[in-house]
Amino acid sequence: MIIKHQQKRLCLGLAGCLLSTGNVFAHDPVFSPGPHVLFKDGFEIHAEFAQSEQGDEKESEQAVAFKYGLSGDWVVGIELPYETVKDDLGTEQGVGDMTLSTKYRFWRKDTLGVQETAAIVAKVKLDTGDDQVGSGTTDTLLGFTYGYESLKWYRWASVRYRFNQDRSIENKGNLQRGDRLFVDFAGGYRPKVNDYREADTVWLLEFNGEYSGRNAFNGVNRNNTGGSQWFVSPGIMWTLRNFAVKAGVQIPVLSNLNGEQDDSDYRARLEFEWHL
Known about the structure:
mainly beta
């Protein structure tokens, strides 16, 4: 009985460590959203470096984001990017479009050593970027995300839909940009359960799908637009107390793009997060 009681206390202690650090560590995937939010009145400073290549076009982005916990279940944020695009015609760079975001965790279930949560996410990309790299439109994204977190294993799933606004081209007409659907599945494994004061490592593997509608110009569909792509995305998450580093690379495995479009070669991302 004494041994069983000690084992129970140990499990409860580990579960308490997991649940207490779940809001401090950014236990979300790299390329898709997770349901975790900040604690009430908490701040997050986020820096991101991303790079991708598709045919002759290379894109890179550096972004900073700030988030604030309105409550233990609701967080709001703002992101400011700087983008560079290179292709056969040259290089374009400048300040990208500002994005406002929010996430609300509407469900949470805690059991011994396990936490399950679900949240809704929303983003609004404003027309604030430089002419060289800005989209010239205000677009919105709505989504749902679910997460399971235990001492050793993680799993996530999410679905998001982006509503792209039409864009007027001066003296030419109206470009109707196709909407986009994102579907994501992810898993994580912690090889060793450490104390909160020690560094923590989680290995990640994601499966990310994107479906894009065709663009249309003055009501006529453009052939070389839209289609679907799927990526396998290995990654890693390293945390130390309230500081986290995440990195990953997206590798294309399935592509069904309409017309003559180059398939994606790769996408890579490196993130730093600091919770205050």
